[in-house]
Amino acid sequence: MPKSRIRKKADYTPPAGKQATTIKLTNRSWVAPVMLALFLIGLVWIVLFYVTDGSLPVESLKNWNIVVGFGFIAGGFAVSTQWK
């Protein structure tokens, strides 16, 4: 039986014309300090409300001070989504 021919496969050459594109990242150095500041402000707001038995930070808000504190904390989480 005769020996079959072996076909030589062509070496892979990448397609020409496509070059790597540079990705421009914006400067987001403000995100971490703002996020941490909002977390701390919210925490201090809630702790201050409990320690002073509701007379501080804003007495007229009464128990809504807790909502304000958690609002600052939620704002910190919202800002954290911008962190890269």
Helical residue percent band: 40-55%
Order of helices and strands: HH
Overall spatial form: rod-shaped
State the distance separating the first and last CA atoms. Answer: 66 Å
Number of helices: 2
Mean pLDDT: 87
Class derived from helix and strand content? mainly alpha
Characterization of this structure:
Helices cover 45% and strands 0% of the residues. The chain is built from two helices and no strands. The chain has helices at residues 31-51, 64-80.
Question: What's the SSE blueprint?
Answer:
Elements: H1 31-51, H2 64-80
Quick tags:
84 residues; mainly alpha
Describe the structure in brief.
The protein is mostly helical and 84 residues long. Helices cover 45% and strands 0% of the residues.
